[in-house]
Write a structure and sequence with these properties.
CATH class of the largest domain: Alpha Beta
CATH topology of the largest domain: Rossmann fold
CATH architecture of the largest domain: 3-Layer(aba) Sandwich
Helix content: 25-40%
Structural class: alpha/beta
Radius of gyration: 21 Å
Number of strands: 12
CATH superfamily of the largest domain: Vaccinia Virus protein VP39
Number of helices: 12
Largest sheet: 7 strands, mixed
Shape: globular
Order of helices and strands: EEHHHHHEHHEHEHHEEEEHHEEE
Length: 296
């Protein structure tokens, strides 16, 4: 990856506030490589999104009146409570409807029907799903649209229950409003967009029928998790991208414990599970889908 200079707002002492401080990219890399392990996160996951973090750091540095990253590092050493603020600056919510078309189609055509059959074989009346790091709600609502316009029509007596969790209250508030700009729904097939949304002055607003059964909860998967059990867990581009290996193992144990035997876990296509992961079998290596083993 080619290193580039980037501009960070925040003026050192003696410099006008309007004069931006230019920080060489290696300085930002060194800072992230220093702080991320202390937050239980891993540097490789931040390579492509590091500039987003830089911009947030710049705003924070300016807000508390420090001269630059060196000053902020000293501030962290002196103020333990600032680490929680930094943790928030390192959250990277990237979400849209129908994100990663191939995975979504595989969910619609194979995974959801298969899980529906499994639920019926257990005499269950609903399919339980958990969306981890749901951001503005695009992922769980995509799941609801897929079910109601696809497999759910073939088994109308089988309901869908989706629990969507995220650490950011602002993202969750946006999810509960369920109104999105065109950029968020552009990847959604037109027939789904037309049936599931109403165009309004606020953007594309999801019809009430597709919000039913979707619950949003503020929760940090590193510290807490819903009880379950679940037939399907989506943990895409969250734990297995940004967390260090120890926390990845913790999260994976939490997920597996809440999956029913035969239940599915979906991770990001470019992610991989910890090398010593147990309790799961590959369902689709191509799409990053695993199934909890039917036998211990």
């Amino acid at each position: 990856m080619t290193a580039k200079d980037l501009t960070v707002c925040g003026a050192p002492q003696g410099r006008p506030a309007s004069d931006p401080l230019v920080v060489q990219d290696p300085e930002g890399v060194r800072f992230l490589q220093w702080c991320l392990p202390r937050l239980g996160m891993r540097w490789p996951g931040f390579r492509k999104v590091r500039k987003r973090v830089y911009r947030r750091l710049a705003r924070r540095i300016k807000e508390i009146g420090l001269p630059g990253l060196a000053g902020y590092r000293a501030h962290l050493d002196a103020h333990a409570e600032e680490w929680a603020v930094l943790d928030g600056l390192c959250r990277i919510p990237i979400s849209r409807f129908y994100r990663d078309r191939g995975v979504i189609r595989h969910l619609e055509e194979e995974v959801l029907p298969g899980l529906g059959t499994l639920a019926l074989s257990r005499n269950e009346t609903e399919l339980g799903c958990w969306s981890i790091g749901c951001a503005g709600g695009e992922e769980p609502y995509t799941l609801a649209i897929l079910w109601h316009l696809g497999p759910g029509r073939r088994v109308p007596h089988l309901g869908l229950r989706i629990l969507a969790t995220d650490i950011d209250p602002e993202s969750l508030a946006r999810a509960r409003k369920a109104c999105y700009p065109s950029s968020s729904v552009k990847d959604l097939p037109a027939v789904y967009r037309e049936q599931a949304f109403v165009p309004t002055a606020r953007g594309w607003c999801l019809r009430e029928a597709y919000r039913e059964g979707v619950t949003f909860v503020e929760q940090d998967v590193r510290r807490a998790a819903p009880v379950g059990p679940f037939h399907l867990v989506l943990c895409r581009n969250v734990a297995f991208t940004y967390f260090d290996e120890a926390r990845q193992r913790d999260v994976l144990r939490t997920i597996v414990a809440r999956l029913i035997p035969g239940g599915a876990l979906v991770i990001g296509r470019r992610e991989s599970l910890p090398p010593d992961a147990v309790g799961l079998e590959v369902w689709s290596a191509k799409f990053g889908i695993y199934r909890r083993s039917l036998t211990p």
